[in-house]
Design goal:
Length: 267
């Protein structure tokens, strides 16, 4: 009996340590996200860059798990010339309804919403960009992902102006493990060598670009920028006017569908 009790105590102690370790690891990761995993030197001169129009396209397809979180981080951006467009690809899990309710209740300044099939969404987004000024900046974000801090859009505007680039590629942080994505320097070496892996982990980086770049690449699906062929077309159109930033520009949510976020959706 004593042996069983001793073994039980050892098991409970080990389990408690494991759970505590997991909780501590999550708290550390969450703290890193809240501390803005961005290189401070990239903020130098950010206030001096004149604001230009930024079109942010949010695209969802069965992302009810995190759509409110995504909208919340977009709504918190400190940027006066941000234009938000929301497209839902025939979600069947209530994403569309949940998003519209959140937009209404939280007064998210979304200028355009659309619910439909992929082709219709793609064509509508293309028309919006075609009608935009060539200097307008374009950002596309999936409804399952979110922005890590309130100055992402401001930083995009600043870096593209400072580096005089057409295409900005940035780092990501995964959730819930808070791991960094593939190094942009490695990507640059690969594309310069004309080695284009098909794996989406290769192209899963943040992308922001001038509308003029999109206008030079007709037929590109704005909502499939992770596709290697699409990424290659944008990269080759930009050529030397591509800048690789080591700062984190978005959080890539890798939590399994159906599981709840470890914090409030609208936090």
């Amino acid at each position: 009996m004593k042996v069983k009790n001793i073994l039980l105590c050892i098991f409970l102690f080990a389990a408690g340590g494991f759970i505590g370790k997991k909780a501590h690891k999550w708290q550390e990761g969450r703290a890193r996200e809240l501390k803005v995993p961005t290189l401070e030197r990239e903020f130098i001169g950010i206030e001096e860059s004149p604001e230009r129009d930024v079109y942010l396209f949010l695209h969802s397809k069965n992302h009810s798990q995190a759509i409110c979180r995504s909208l919340s981080t977009i709504n918190k951006q400190k940027y006066s010339k941000l234009h938000i467009f929301y497209f839902d690809e025939n979600s069947t899990d209530g994403t569309w309804e949940k998003a519209l309710q959140y937009i209404d209740e939280q007064h998210v300044p979304v200028e355009f919403t659309m619910h439909g099939n992929r082709r219709a969404l793609k064509d509508e987004a293309a028309q919006i960009i075609e009608a935009a000024s060539p200097e307008t900046l374009i950002i596309s974000l999936e409804g399952k992902d979110w922005l890590p801090h309130d100055r992402v859009v401001q930083l995009v505007n600043h870096k593209i102006a400072e580096e005089k680039c057409s295409l900005l590629l940035g780092q990501l942080s995964t959730y819930p493990k808070y791991e960094l994505g593939i190094a942009s320097r490695w990507i640059k070496i690969k594309v310069d060598q004309q080695k284009w892996p098909r794996a989406k982990s290769f192209t899963k980086v943040f992308k922001a670009f001038r509308a003029s770049l999109f206008q030079k690449t007709p037929g590109v699906d704005l909502f499939d920028l992770q596709d290697a062929a699409v990424f290659r077309r944008l990269y080759e159109a930009a050529k030397e006017k591509t800048f690789f930033s080591k700062s984190v520009y978005y959080v890539d949510n890798r939590l399994e569908p159906g599981k709840k976020l470890l914090f409030s959706e609208g936090e």
